[in-house]
Amino acid sequence: MSQTTQLLNTLKKCLKSKAITYRQLAEELKLSEASIKRLFSEKSFSLKRLEEICNVLDLNFYDLAKISVDAETGPSMLTVEQERVLSENPKLFVFFYLLLNGRKPDSIVTDYKISEKESLQFLLKLDKLKLIELYPGNSVRLLTQKNIIWRKDGPIRASYESQIKEEFLNAPFDSSEERLRFETGKLSDGSQSVMLKKIDRLFKEYNELTEIDKALPQEKSQNTGLMIAFRPWVFSMLNDFKR
Known about the structure:
The protein has 243 residues and is mainly α. 58% of the residues lie in helices and 3% in strands. The protein has a two-stranded antiparallel ribbon with strand order 1-2.
């Protein structure tokens, strides 16, 4: 896929995530809907026009390019040593998690029980671990993707997996913003493959949306969690009664 095509696909996803139709975009840019459709179909954007669309989306060129690149890049996996250091210091782990989610060091100090001195120590530690690059003024560049696959038998999952599962599922799931369903049924090998691809696609879209919404003010978004489980499985009670 060409870089131009990837960038425009990302632009379309950003518009969709914010529920902005071609007609609404046309009104914002004082163009006809047909003109907007032609711009996308012909991929004939000037830099000025692209900037105008980014302004409508509350994005800058850097945000758009980063989302586009991340969409084409697989999730990161840390080294065992990187995971070990994070697992042994919960406050450092929280600090790194917040950086991954677009928070600036000064806003973390303001909103969390982390002092300026601790913030600087954490930044230096993460820089030494090669999880970030630290620049003057405590400016940070992440050296990992936001989407991290924690090692199956690694220190992070050993330390936190059970707690996360218990806390996440310990809820009534009865509000309009929550979902919990459980279904069972027989699937062929082909159908299982289809389901797994759909699950992978859902997680990819989820991570793309979190990247897009990083540009929003903190008060206009909220932390969410997405957990899906799928595997060949038979309820133990059925096996207990099986001949």
